[in-house]
């Protein structure tokens, strides 16, 4: 599992199952990720002063990277990530279309 920031992913479990989203952040351990509009956490801000309105701030929360599949930008299908070595470099490839992703 090597999801990167900016990848498009498909959610495979939970409330957001079947939705695709763009990855915003990946935790350093790569086990948890944050994606646009997925696992929204609501935070209520109380008014501090009189006349001020309270507001609800919505923010995507981190969730387990094992609940997603990468959507290949080349063939547009949910896929697993493979690796290839070329000239001492490790490159990421789509297991379905074998293209560099
Ligand atoms: Zn592909």
Please tell me the overall pLDDT.
Answer: 93
Write the H/E string, N to C. EEEEEEEEEE
Judged by helices, strands and strand pairing, the structural class is: mainly beta
Helix content: under 10%
Give me the side-by-side strand order of the main sheet: 6-3-2-1-7-8
**Number of E-type strands:** 10
Number of helices: 0
How would you characterize the largest beta sheet?
6 strands, antiparallel
Q: What's the N-to-C terminus distance?
A: 13 Å
Distinct compounds present? zinc ion
Shape: elongated
Strand content: over 45%
**Residue windows where pLDDT falls under 50 for at least 5 positions:** none
User: What's the Cα radius of gyration?
Assistant: 18 Å
Describe it.
The structure is a single chain. With 101 residues, the protein is an all-beta fold. 0% of the residues lie in helices and 47% in strands. It is elongated and about 65 Å long. The mean pLDDT is 93. Bound molecules: zinc ion.
Key words describing this protein structure:
101 residues, mainly beta, 6-stranded antiparallel sheet, two-stranded antiparallel sheet, binds zinc ion
Brief overview:
This protein is an all-beta fold and 101 residues long. It contains no helices and ten strands. A hairpin with a 2-residue loop joins strand 9 and strand 10 (89-94).
What's the topology here?
Elements: E1 8-11, E2 20-26, E3 32-35, E4 40-45, E5 55-60, E6 63-64, E7 68-71, E8 78-79, E9 81-86, E10 89-94
Antiparallel strand pairs: 1-2, 1-7, 2-3, 3-6, 4-5, 7-8, 9-10
The structure holds zinc ion (ZN).
Zinc ion binds near residues 75, 77, 96, 97 and 99.
